[in-house]
Amino acid sequence: MVSNSASGRRKKEVIMATPAINIGIEENARVEIADGVSRVLADSYSLYLKTHNFHWNVTGPMFNSLHNMFEEQYTELATAVDDIAERIRALGARAPGSYSEYAKLTSIPEESSTPDAQEMIRQLVTGHEIVARTAREVFATADEAHDEPTADLLTERMQLHEKTAWMLRSMLE
Which residue ranges does the record assign to the Ferritin/DPS domain (predicted)? Predict the structure, then answer.
């Protein structure tokens, strides 16, 4: 690139190329892992939205306990989506960040009505189990590529979602 200096002389500007990603994971594996983690991100964000919606709209005799529980859950999910997106970026891919992208990638069904509290709990059990299954699917690819940071992130997410599903399911018994 050439620019004019104050004295009218032309001087060259040096443009440095971004170095290639060299973290010990082949590019095709990084792309496959990032695509899978993008699905985990979409599921997590969709579950975040559903949980926040239920927090706002829950009614009935369990209002206070569910309102507070849902707030804890969506707050945790808000932090998680940031960690998940940052892992995608560390792998060299663009993290999806729009509703339309999430809609294409997620397996979490959207809820546009206001179900009763029991149905909210059932839907959240299903949602947490979906995220755990998606993370488990991606784990195999990360493990095969020796991508320990992604495997660690996915393990943490599976543990949390399985525990949350269990706790919610216990409220239905």
Answer: 39-173
